[in-house]
Specification:
Helices cover 69% and strands 3% of the residues. Mean pLDDT is 81; it is low at 151-155. It is mainly alpha-helical and 324 residues long. The chain folds into 3 domains: 1-64, no CATH class; 67-157; 172-324, no CATH class. Strands 1-2 form a two-stranded antiparallel ribbon. Helix 1 runs antiparallel to helix 2, helix 7 (177-195) packs antiparallel against helix 10 (227-247) and helix 10 runs antiparallel to helix 11 (252-273). Keywords: Membrane, Transmembrane, Transmembrane helix. It holds the Pfam family HAAS. This is DUF1129 domain-containing protein.
């Protein structure tokens, strides 16, 4: 039954959510009707071979045509397009925010510029997305028309034995696309904020004539000391997102890599927060005028505690889903 379950999952995961359950029941009934009483594993393989490649069967259940990118390359095209769009959007966002941060002088309040920055960032992301979509589609359409089909097959001969190498995509372990692409977006946001913290993470006050820049929160020179390990963490986060996209579900190896990332990030944060000059001197003076003595210790210890709590839950949740 495991081959049948995985085969059905491989078909239905390529279909719209609303129709998956009905098609799964229909497909299971079809497979069972094809099997004799007291069937063997070989009987199952013969039935699945007759049904064919799950990707091809899923296309038969869909209601929309796929003429520009045909059956041979459609799955590869969609996977590459989603990946290219997510990374292209992240890179475009980082580049735009970096450009704005580099040109920020503080003469005009940041919050007043925020709407224009958001619109500009959205425009940059959309522009890059259009280029990625156009060139990716054009490339696959070209390949579709110049690479001949051999013996009526798709890209390779499919066999039920291929199912043994595929993961059992249980719903409890499944990783949503929102989690994957949301993680990439969050990496882009915090990385930009880190490398341009003296322009983006700042204190403003209303002086009557509008908001006035007071001081950056962090000492940018100290932040730059940690750039090699920060780049390592960024690379690990991107690698984790790629692994999630590839596996589509939590595994023990993925949970272990996530643990390594969380532990590394926590250690780096603790070291950074305990640096004597981590906060900008102007920010320290500003906070001394607002709060009583001891606020810095509360802020550092509270930040470490909250980050540690989040990392611990992230690690636990990863292993919980992997073991489910």
């Amino acid at each position: 039954m495991k081959l049948i379950d995985i085969y059905i999952q491989e078909v239905t995961r390529r279909l719209p959510e609303k129709s998956r359950d009905d098609i799964a029941l229909e497909l299971r009934s079809t497979i069972e009707d094809m099997l004799p009483e007291g069937y063997t594993e070989q009987d199952v393989k013969d039935a699945l071979t007759e049904l064919g490649d799950p990707a091809a069967l899923a296309r038969e259940y869909r209601d929309w045509p796929q003429h520009l990118i045909g059956p041979r390359y459609f799955e590869s095209y969609m996977t590459l397009l989603k990946l290219a769009l997510s990374f292209g959007a992240a890179i475009a966002l980082i580049a735009y925010l970096a450009q704005q941060a580099a040109g920020f002088t503080g003469e005009e309040p940041f919050l007043r510029l925020l709407p224009a920055i958001i619109i500009g960032a959205a425009g940059s992301v959309i522009e890059v997305a259009m280029h990625v979509f156009f060139w990716t589609t054009l490339s696959f359409a070209f390949i579709e028309r110049v690479v001949p089909i051999k013996d009526g097959q798709l890209c390779h001969q499919w066999s039920p034995d291929n199912l043994k190498d595929l993961p059992d995509r249980a719903k409890e372990r499944k990783i949503s696309k929102f989690e994957i692409y949301g993680g990439i977006f969050w990496t882009a946001v915090w990385a930009t904020g880190y490398f341009y913290a003296d322009h983006l993470v700042v204190i403003y006050e209303n002086k009557g004539n509008g908001l006035e820049f007071i001081t950056p929160v962090f000492n940018q020179d100290v932040l730059q000391l940690f750039w090699p390990v920060i780049l390592l963490i960024i690379a690990m986060e991107i690698a984790l997102s790629l692994l999630k996209l590839y596996t589509a579900k939590w595994t023990m190896k993925l949970a272990a890599f996530n643990t390594l990332l969380q532990v590394t990030a926590t250690i780096v944060l603790i070291i950074m927060l305990n640096h004597a000059s981590f906060f900008d001197s102007g920010f320290i003076g500003y906070m001394d005028n607002v709060f009583d003595y001891g606020w810095e210790s509360w802020l550092i210890n509270g930040s470490i505690f909250l980050f540690f709590l989040g990392a611990a839950y992230n690690i636990y949740d990863g292993f919980r889903k992997a073991k489910h």
